[in-house]
Amino acid sequence: MAKLYFRYGAVGSAKTLNLLAVAHNYEQQGKRVVLIKPSLDDRFGAVTIRSRASLEREADLCVSEDSVIDIDRMKGIDCVLVDECQFLSEFVIHQLRRITVELNIPVICYGLRTNFMTRLFEGSKRLMELADSIEEVKTTCAFCNRKAVFNIKLRNGRACVSGDEIELGSEELYQPSCCQCYEERTARSNPMRLPAVELWLVRHGQTDANAAGVLSGWHNAQMTPVGIEQAKALRQKLAHVEFDSVYSSDLDRAVETARLACGEPERTPALREIFFGDYEGKRIEDVDQDWVRSLYQFNAFEAPGGESVEETTKRVTGFFESLKPGRHLVVCHGGVIRTISRHIGEDRFINNGAVLVVDWTHKRIISHID
């Protein structure tokens, strides 16, 4: 018995080009093929099958959801090739299966596996259930170099997961995406989203105190030109990510970084740096060096008249525990971020302008962006 093939891939994976190449190869050998397409796909004309590379030919048969394929017409055919099979109904898929069984003719179907909401199309679902051979036509994500597995739908250049399942379009409407880029771009609308708190912890841009080696916990140090550029660079790094909220420490350096990177934040003193008490505003080389070593090691320490690590941890974690599930951009300080990383079992100190992404609900680090 001939096989029923389902060759699926994300948008832009050259599925139609592959189909046209297979048709050409059969015909070069003097064999006969029949090309089928769904009648609703009229992007390039009622009967035209066209690839993104602009190669095209006419379909021999266009089918709707209730079309009955004339089996007798298929006799003497060497192969049936189907384009955009995700749009076919179960009724039509069953007829394609019958062609392989009753006429011993191979049927090769090309199409998408899932829609822009990561759900199987009707035709794709039935093919996943019935096909003898399921093959992936691979392509890379439009936003990185990972393999694309999903299809992002664009609206005014931004990802969306609303609207009709079938909305015909090409590069201007859909892009191939890996899972990570899909999740980053769809945010609160992500159909795979778990009810978790995800924190994008940003360390503010470099300040004059950072550059001079001065302790500036609650002291309102000002950003240097380098720090301002670091904050501006964050805007591009974060432009593709959708956030449910933006928070910052109420200290100037954090607020200004948030403004330059994303927009006006909601400010809170709960996200302030560790308070260095009597050491505020002093050069690191001028204070007790045993205390400095303890600070660098981030062990139990407390500046005279200031906060301990334990107190800072309680203050910051208390704020994070109050957040609702969602993706939150949090612009704060190096000590705060290190406090959080140690709280979840790792020790991370990040540079000015860097980002640490944390799954707060499950207490794990997801990624680090410099």
The count of β-strands is: 17
Low-confidence stretches: none
Count of discrete alpha- or pi-helical segments spanning 4 or more residues: 10
Overall pLDDT: 91
Strand order of the largest sheet: 5-2-6-7-1-8
Oligomer: single chain
Helix content: 25-40%
Evaluate the radius of gyration: 29 Å
State the shape.
elongated
State which percent range the strand residues make up. Answer: 15-25%
Major sheet details: 6 strands, parallel
Distance between the termini: 56 Å
Order of helices and strands: EHEEEEEHEHEEEEHEHHEHEHHEHEE
- Structural class of the helix and strand makeup? alpha/beta
Description:
It is a single chain. The chain has helices at residues 15-28, 90-102, 122-130, 179-186, 208-212, 225-238, 252-261, 289-297, 309-321, 334-343; strands at residues 4-8, 33-38, 48-50, 56-58, 61-63, 79-82, 107-111, 133-136, 150-155, 158-160, 174-177, 197-203, 245-249, 266-268, 326-332, 355-359, 364-369. Helix 7 (252-261) links the parallel strand 13 (245-249) and strand 14 (266-268). The chain contains ten helices and 17 strands. The protein starts with a strand and ends with a strand. Helix 2 (90-102) packs parallel to helix 3 (122-130), helix 6 (225-238) packs across helix 7 (252-261) and helix 9 crosses helix 10 (334-343). Strands 5-2-6-7-1-8 form a six-stranded parallel sheet, with helices on both faces. A six-stranded mixed sheet has the order 14-13-15-12-16-17, sandwiched between helices. A three-stranded antiparallel sheet has the order 10-9-11.
